[in-house]
Amino acid sequence: MLVELFPFQKKALQNLRMNTAEALGSYRRTHTPQVVSFTAPTGSGKTIIMAALFESILFGDERYPEQPEAIIVWLSDSPELNQQSKDKIDGKADKITLSQTVTITDESFDQELLDEGHIYFLNTQKLGKSSNLTKHGDSRQYTIWETLRNTAREKSDRLYFVIDEAHRGMLGREAGRATTIMQKFLKGSPEDGLEPMPVVIGMSATTERFNTLVKGTTSTIHKVVLTPDEVRASGLLKDRIVITYPEETAVRKDMAILQAATDEWRKKWRHWQQYCYEQHYAYVNPIFVVQVENATSEKISKTDLTEALRTIESRAGYRFEKGEVVHAFGEKETIDINGLEVAYYEPSGINDNRKIKLVFFKESLSTGWDCPRAETMMSFRRAKDATYIAQLLGRMVRTPMQMRIQVDESLNDVHLFLPYFEKNTVEEIVRALQASEGGDIPTDIYGEKM
Description:
Blueprint: H1 7-30, E1 34-39, H2 46-59, E2 71-76, H3 79-92, E3 101-103, E4 118-123, H4 144-154, E5 159-164, H5 172-187, E6 199-204, H6 207-214, E7 220-225, H7 228-233, E8 240-245, H8 253-279, E9 287-291, H9 305-316, E10 325-327, E11 335-337, E12 340-344, E13 358-361, E14 374-379, H10 386-394, E15 413-417, H11 423-437, E16 443-447
Parallel strand pairs: 1-6, 1-7, 2-4, 2-5, 3-4, 5-6, 8-15, 8-16, 9-13, 9-14, 10-12, 10-13, 14-15
Antiparallel strand pairs: 11-12
């Protein structure tokens, strides 16, 4: 690995390796399907731990022999999440070559069996009935179901099937559909000619979410659990999520709270600037994320983007330049906001672009997004969007320097501003956040009169 694992990650890796080896051995002896449940909270580095596990399986370690013929399949519910996971493995696992990681696409994939020594990435959309991968045709002799079935039957002693339930991009009905497809690999699917996978490694952020996934299976379950306290002690998670909302109904409270959010973002700028200068660290460059409403028949967003940008610039005393403001709307086109050219930017690349200061988005940022630099967020959404907001917050609790800041407490917080929420609807967000990301995420809530 090109990165040094934290002690808690090394411990999780050891437990995962042991339980995976035991699961494979149990399947060989009994032919009973095995599930290794890996539960770890947001921010714990699950993908990095899994990358280290794959290296250990393929190339061996001090306790286990190499298994170069191993086949690993990674299933998630989103193409972008798959790409993000693949990029992390390609970038951090130096023993695994780029040619060993393969994204299964419906244009060209047609194999009787999966190749040994490879890691395949597959998403649930590719397994729907409308997908070309599930159909025979002039250019496809084997459907993906047949490929997986054949591989499980003939190479069960070297097949590891990973279900990434921890990073969910889908919500609502789409999430339910994705869960149903994921369960086919745990329970089997007679209509697709599929038996349960021999060994499944299920990644999840909470025990409850994993229990929902494995409900009704007859598999033997091996559990590996990472606690939030272990992760927080490492400095990888923020200390607090501070949620600010109006206690009283106010006229035009959204722009007043946007001003307060801008003040918080500028304060973060000054504090990070001072800290990085004094400690001789590379500058963090915190990002301000603004969640706006969906499109109408006339406009790209019901929120007045021109007024929002004008308010932020006026309050910050700063005129943005081209490239400093981007959007992540589903309409992937360059737009004009208050005379500024604002281009679309892939969410997964935002954190690494040091020029970006302000991001407008609707719902898409919660999918495939890791941005520790995003420490201030304002949302124009209403209370019915509590789950979207909670899912996004779960992506913002990571610390940008992968450590706790001892000399400035304010740099250990992430701030969320919600003009259209009140105390009871804010509590809905907290419940949704704890349900999706782990029950012990620290949340400090207070009202702020504007």
